[in-house]
Amino acid sequence: MAIRQGVAAAVAMAMTVFSLAAVGQAGEETRFKGVTLRVATWGGATRDALRDYVASELERRGAKVEFVIGSPQDNLAKLIAARGQVPFDVVEFIGTMRPEIEGRALLAKLDPARVPNAKGLRFEPPSDLMVPTWITEEMIVYNKDLFRQNGIAPPKSLADLRNAKLAGRIMIPDISSGGGIEAVGAFALTAGGNEGNITPGLKLINDLPGVRFWKAGGEVVTQFKSGDIWVAIAHAGWALRTARAGVPVATVPAQIGSHQGMVKEGYIGVVKGTPNQEAAEFFIDTYLSPAAQEKFALKVGVVPVVQTARAKMSEDPTLRDLVILEPAKINNMVRLDAAKIDLGKWNDEWNRSVAAR
Amino acid sequence: MSAIVEHHAVAHGLAARGWQAVRKMPRLRIRFGTIVTVAYFIVIFTILLAPLVVVIGGSFSAPASDKVVMSYVQFPPERLTLEWYGKIPKAQLKALGVSFLLGTAVALGACLLGVPAAIGLVRGRFAGKPVVSAVMRAPLQIPHVVSGIAFLQLFYAIGDLGGFYAQGTTAGLFIGHLFMATPFVIGSVAAVLQRCNPRLEEAAYVLGASEWRTFRRVTLPLIGPGVFTGALYAFIVSFVDVPVAIFLASPAATTFPVELFNAMEQDFNPSSLASASLAAGFAIVLVFAAQRLVGLDSLLKPRTK
Fold first, then answer.
1. How many domains does chain A have?
2. Distance from CA of A43 to the nearest CA of B (A)
3. Which whole number is the average pLDDT over A11-27?
């Protein structure tokens, strides 16, 4: 009798647990039902990776996710033009845009309890309006074989590119391209300038023999592959693609004062006034999960901000050779002080002294 | 004496041969002109077609080794493959459809607005006609990116007043494209209409035709080539636009150039060349179809009688 009662109690308990789990599961499946979340981000691989590894988690919970694709500058223009309306719920942007976005008070505060994966992420200056989602490492990428064959020593600094043997074989980003601001900043700091005075950097760029400029990273891979260029300034993701295209490239983080290398940071925030704050924060938290960070980084060619994802990536020998994944080395890279950058002035000076050559 | 005669004969013979040579000169000139013309066309066609050849050729390119990941343009191809056509992202195919439908709608809309406007500008008599004409052509002078931002601001302002925000909708993008495309229809129709004899329309009225019948049976056939040219331009303006679409497009209906532009900035593989080749092929088919159906040659024929 006692045994029968015990079995019955166990069955009842199991059924209760199962029912609660089922109810919980059903609740989770409908958590964001009826929500349409609009995410402003880059197109191409970035949008595809976010759709596959991040938005899918929201859609599994009943939400619909739409992507507003464009450069961060285009999306910022839309946000400013909206004058308090909400053209999208979530926006991705780059570190150099932080002062303008913060100054215009365009973002809502993030609830740390709803974005637990952001805990421990270090970024300067700290803010409760945004979190970093990825970094790119702006590197000197060079063809090892061609450098060796032509008796050129591997470069250590951007100033080393001022070498007559490299005439017509150097490619750096145009100021308007991804990584262009960081490259100009790196040249300025190398040549004794700073964010407020880029003139020495532009002079150094003008001294590079026969320098060419790229606007889209794909050009770097194509030019390396055809042998037209031997060295480029590009982020490590493009070096990785070049290596996978069969070109024997190596990367060097340029010596800039006491630092080695320069990083560009990608950020994400929730647009002020959105009715979908919770779903937006869920999106961001999923973006920062180690699994999504690793998959996103591999697809897009960036470096995760979450250390566990970086550690997983370092298991790949090609990645380890071309991309810096150690926290200490990443922390030693230069981050431009966006507050000191007057982009209009930078563009004017670039147009006058570099583009007008 | 005979020496003199012989000398004269020789001189005459030389003169005759010289004259023959001179007579041949125009033919030589024609040949030289032909060579210059052919060379000119070769240069022009090379400039026009070389990018297309690289794009289409690159879309069939496979790497020499299977270990190589193609994230670059390879022309001429090391090996040939159709693989990239199978790998065109769905988003790009969908965007191609969106752009085609939008371009068609814009072409039709621009004709509906532009044809009456052109008739009014050419046939109408009213004060301030040059000013109205200049205003109607003004969109051609405005950089597209400025138009995009201006429409964005306008749509927000209208939305604040009326509650309907057109930005981020296909309707909003349609309006933006209509703004850019309509001047092309006005320009091409007005150009044709100016060469048409207004007495033909007057004759139709005298014979008792209504205004609508006169337009349908007399004016429209006369301006047909201009309408077709304007519609084709309007379609192209809409189909290739990036700056306006970036600001106004709906997230659910991104246009092909925006999709392609963003994809190529972020990452690159020849599937982008494959989708661009499809778009180019589609354009070529469209032009051939137009040639068969309408006869593009007719655009060059004067229609003044």
1. 2
2. 5
3. 59
